[in-house]
Amino acid sequence: MDIKAPDLGVDSAEVSEIMVEVGDVIAKDDNIILLESDKASVEVPSSAAGKVTKISVAVGDQVSEGMVLIELESEADAKDDTQSTDTENKTESGADKQNESQDNQQAEKQSDTNAAEENTSQPAKQASEQAGKATTHALPDLGVDEAQVSEIMVSVGDMVTADQSILLIESDKASVEVPAPEAGKVEKILVQAGDMVANGQDFIVIIGEGSDSASNNANESKADSSESQASKPAESTNKTESAEQSDKSQTTDEPKQAAKSTTDTSAANAKLTEAQVNEKMVDIYAGPAVRKLARQLGVDISQVTGSALNERILKEDLFAHVKDSLSKQKAAPASGNGVSSSLPSLPDMSNTEIWGETEVQDLSRLQKVSIPQLNYNTLLPQVTQFDLSDITETEKLRGELKGAMKAEGIGFTILAFVVKATAYALTQHPRFNSHLSDDNTQVVLRKSVNMGIAVATDDGLIVPVIKNVQDKGLKQIAIEIGELAVKARDKKLTTKELQGASFTISSQGNLGGTAFTPLVNWPQVGILGVSEASMQPRWNASKQTFEPRLMLPLSLSYDHRVINGADAAVFTRYIASLLADPRRILL
User: Fold this and answer.
1) Which of 130, 410, 441, 567 has the most CB atoms at less than 10 Å from its CB?
2) Who contacts 372 (Cβ-Cβ below 8 Å, separation ≥6)?
3) pLDDT 10s digits, 507-531
4) Is residue 537 within 8 Å of 547, Cβ to Cβ?
């Protein structure tokens, strides 16, 4: 079958890139050739599926509408060849019938036996064709730009079920187990423990469930049926081509995977926006696929040297550019987190006469990945505002409702009131529910309140998020606080439950202490710390006497670039007044 050039919109165009090779098996609409004219670059798709038997053009050729580009051996052609062979066999069989009647009877019996075997093997063949194929799967949304692979829970050759945990990913926010996207056999693992990975990065190749059993059935059927010796070399050839195609696919995927993994790491701090990349592409000689890849990788394409005709940039040139950039970065002295580099090295503490006995303990994985995020706080001009809230009446209300809540299995703590009051205060003071733009010229105001709740676990602090708190009542907030706390301690939080916070509350509950300075979790501009409530004497002006009141300490830390001191004092006092009389929230 001939695949011809479609209407190009011009009289002729130059072949800039051939995207297939002889022997490749392609699907309909797969891109096969890149054509470029003085007006545009066009990727020509195949109009049919099949195996490439011939490429009729070369790079640099001028192509016009209707010119043959490649030749395909389609499934229909293969069936026609098979039917032609069967017709010839039947003709020869008919001649044999006329010459020898006895042999004819034996031939008919043999033919019936072969037909039965063929019918028996046909379902197995169909099952084999329909069995799952090797599929490369990408990581889901991790909720952060990048995270570290802490543990790989499966090995090549393992059989996995859908949603089985196969990878443990840790970021500065959480430790997340990545589930298997489908059931099947692990064909290849594309990442290693310690690698930094990003959203959408390929990480595993799985052969869909059922392919092994179908293959075994097909092999048994072939063994039972007496195949001719001539068909065996053909089968061997097909297997060889399939293996070569698989190797080629893996070889092609490896540089892409390496480029994506390394680029995500290198471009995390200085990734160009799509508009910036497009501005630099105006005078660049590259096809649309290469331009798209440059946008995805965040590569400054004007810095890439093209290796094709007329210095046209290929995908391989992008990968080579990324690899070269990373090699230079590794060669340069690494500062680690950008903060510790300004400190002197730790002194030699091996002299016990000076330092005494020491012991080295490893940080938990969650603590290690949290360090870069915590270092951001040293770059923020952070200030903390302290206040007290009289929650005596609120605690009485909580005591009245606690019994009914407990009967429903709901833990009803004062934290639910704090979350509700803070969410309402954020709607009235939206600047605290915002982010400072990268160029420090604008403030991005959030229209919904997504409240991060700090939860202490054995591995460290983790911050799950309650979405749209401004629309939820006290009961629903209490339910979600309990559910997220359990998930956090059991390491069952999903990425969506860890991302999108616009403000954070860190409550030390009944751990003690009168106040503390919580760290602003960049890019947020504020965080509210809550310490243990205590009974304190407060002056009652109307009764002209002191009386015991339950006072709750509040500590508001804020980014002074966005929030000034007066606004912080007003905001903290407003939260304190809401907690003193929660009926005001209903107004």
Assistant:
1) 410
2) 172, 337
3) 887 787 888 888 998 888 999 999 9
4) yes
Backbone angles phi, psi at 309, to 5 degrees: -60, 135
Side-chain-side CA neighbours of residue 490 (13 Å): 9
Q: Which of 199, 225, 251 is the last residue of a domain?
A: 225
Active-site residue list: 560
Cα-Cα-Cα-Cα torsion 377, 383, 385, 386, nearest 10 degrees, comes to 70
pLDDT > 90 in the chain, percent: 13
Domain membership of residue 94 (yes or no) is no
Spatial separation of the C-alpha atoms in residues 45 and 536, rounded to whole Å: 78
Degrees, nearest 5: CA angle 127-132-133: 120
Q: Look at the chain and report how many structural domains it folds into.
A: 4
Bridge partners (DSSP) of residue 33 are 18, 44
Q: Where are the alpha helices (DSSP H) in 69-170?
A: 75-99, 101-130
* Banded model confidence at residue 107, pLDDT cuts 50, 70, 90: low
**Residue pLDDT, tens place only, 245-301:** 444 444 444 444 444 444 444 444 444 555 555 555 556 777 767 777 777 777 777
DSSP state of 35: E
Tell me which residue of 498, 499, 171, 192 sits closest to 365, measured CA to CA. Answer: 171
Residues 378 and 456 in one domain: yes
422: how many CB neighbours lie within 10 A of its CB? 27
What is the CB-side half-sphere exposure of residue 118 using CA atoms within 13 A?
7
Q: Which of 548, 560, 559, 552 is nearest to 578 (CA)?
A: 552
Give mean pLDDT, residues 104-117. Answer: 53
Crossing angle (nearest 10°) for helices 101-130 and 211-224: 170
365 to 170, 361, 372, 459, 511: CA distances (angstroms): 7, 12, 13, 8, 25
| Its pTM surpasses 0.85 | no
CATH number at 23 reads 2.40.50.100
Let me know whether 533 and 460 are in one domain.
yes
d(CA 4, CA 46): 9
Domain limits for position 140:
117-225
Segment 127-150 shows an average pLDDT of: 70
Q: What confidence category does residue 411 fall into, taking pLDDT thresholds of 50, 70 and 90?
A: confident
- pLDDT bracket for residue 41 (50, 70, 90): low
Which residue type does 484 have? L
Contact 491, 514 (CB under 8 A): no
Q: How far apart are CA 398 and CA 584, in angstroms?
A: 16
The answer to whether the Cα torsion of 488, 269, 193, 152 is positive or negative is: positive
pLDDT digits (tens, 9 = 90+) for 456-514: 877 777 888 999 998 888 889 999 998 888 888 888 888 788 888 899 999 887 787 88
**Is residue 449 within 8 Å of 423, Cβ to Cβ?**
yes
The 3-state DSSP class for residue 34 equals: strand
Q: Is residue 203 helix, strand or coil?
A: strand
CA distance 58 to 331: 41
**Position 474 in a domain:** yes
pLDDT in tens, 296-316: 777 777 888 888 777 788 888
- Which residue reads 């009926």 in tokens? 583
Residues 218 and 249 in one domain: no
Half-sphere exposure of 388 (CA within 13 A, CB side): 13
Q: Note whether 388 and 519 are same-domain residues.
A: yes
